[in-house]
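Title: Comparing notes on inverse folding

I've been comparing how different people in this forum approach sequence design from structure. To keep things fair, I'm posting one structure and asking everyone to reply with a full sequence. Here's the target:
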């Protein structure tokens, strides 16, 4: 079993990495796994291009992603979210 739609947030990448490792351990104690291949991270207003590592795996950095129906953008721009919501409304 896997956990879906969880978004740990922190201002410091090192602290975030420690929190993700603690979260992973808690998931594993509950019989769940973190699928690192599907895991992404987004850094807002950051020039730090170093990778985020979870165990031996590297987590892919993205500039935008969908979370609980909203499209979040690293720049803080909402244009993608508005376009996605309009497209969803037209589809219905």
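Reply #1:
Here's my take.
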């Amino acid at each position: 079993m896997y956990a879906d739609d969880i978004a740990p947030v922190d201002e410091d990448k090192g602290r975030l990495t420690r929190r993700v490792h603690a979260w992973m351990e808690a998931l594993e104690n509950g019989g769940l796994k973190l699928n690192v291949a599907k895991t992404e991270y987004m850094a807002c207003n950051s020039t730090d291009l170093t990778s985020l590592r979870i165990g031996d795996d590297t987590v892919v950095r993205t500039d935008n992603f969908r979370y609980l129906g909203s499209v979040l953008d690293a720049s803080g721009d909402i244009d993608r979210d508005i376009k996605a919501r309009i497209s969803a409304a037209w589809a219905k």
